[in-house]
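Our preliminary data section would be incomplete without showing what the modeling component actually yields. Below, a chain of 457 amino acids is followed by its predicted structure, encoded as tokens that our downstream tools consume directly.
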Amino acid sequence: MFLSVFDMFKVGVGPSSSHTMGPMVAGARFLDALRAAPFRAHGVKASLHGSLAFTGVGHATDRATVLGLAGFRPDSYDAEAAEAALAAIRDTATLTPADLPPLAFDPKADLRFDFGPNLPGHANGMILAATDAQGDVILQETYYSVGGGFVLTEAELAAGRDTDDGPPVPYPFKTAAEMLEMARASGMSIARMKHANEVARGCAESLDSGVARIWQVMNACIDRGLTAEGTLPGGLGVRRRARAIHDQLMTERGRNLTAPHVINDWMSCYAMAVNEENAAGGQVVTAPTNGAAGVVPAVIRYWLDFVPGASERQIPDFLLTAAAIGGLVKYNASISGAEAGCQAEVGSAAAMAAAGLAAVMGGTPGQIENAAEIALEHHLGMTCDPVKGLVQVPCIERNGLGAIKAVSAASLALRGDGHHLVPLDACIETMRQTGLDMSEKYKETSLGGLAVNVPNC
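Predicted structure:
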């Protein structure tokens, strides 16, 4: 099993990795299929199913699908160009992707929200079809957006999660127990083993530059969020709060008025800055998803700003360790809110952040695994119930609390010797089972919880 650090941390666009980035990726993949086809298509149609339908408008899934079919991709997204393309498509009912003939597409008629049962493979399903001049379907593909910006075709999903065609890696751990045993046998840290695996699939230079870019985008996102003001889009009237909180904290720091517990406000402020940017459709890094994008960068920024001895030179170890833990969660359970609730998103992010922090603070592999387990355990059962289908309430504050839990988990683990009752593997399996048992109302459909009670208050 190999999931790259660049699988867990993807540069993309808000507000959702599964509902925005995924459909955009699916659209771009369908264009590639059309380019390879031996026939010429005349038009395109799309249908959104399951959670993509129920919360699609709030998550900008319709926009993302159209933009993907127009040739846009999350990692190179240009907001100004996207707005111009959407306006042109609305006016002309035509897509003009590169290296393809113009394709008839009227967003009002050719993009359909299907509120019936989920497609069989996953809660986040969509069907893209190409038609000839008579309107008959000549190519059709089903895509599943399975969380964190990962997209699988129906055939890829059916092939199973064990599919891995790349060259072998030196430390192919599939469980936390295997990871700890390999660390013990090799005498290497989790970050060093993950680094060796990455280099086996690529090159050290591209790994170093890629990890540096991940942190640069994360940190820039925090900085933008700390200076932006106004009301977030979507109709809830949620005001940005990170800047005001940050200004208050800076004033209190200057007057030496800060109580010890206020450090929690700094962590929340950093996380909220990221998720306010995400809610506004800005550039973020999946960590492991957009809905949980604030936890890992907030913990890194807290560590750099407040922990003596912290250095940016250690950030690669933080991110590689976090990616190793995130890969275990994704492989053995889920990082998708539509599949397992918010325990799979903010819970996974907190586990990743706790592990990364424990690593850079000198934790042993056993302490790092313990930190991840503590953080995930205390998110078990958390539902995903976004009000109005927007990644705003409770998502923005939830990232702040996830960061606080991650730091507390790392601190508790570092006070111990790595021995503990509940293994991380058992916690991940419990999360998977809890997700299976959880009502669909609480898995990113906005049909239960806060999503139905807040508007009625």
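The radius of gyration is 22 Å. The beta strands are 11-13, 43-50, 94-95, 103-104, 111-114, 124-131, 137-147, 150-153, 283-285. Preliminary results of this kind motivate Aim 1 of the renewal.
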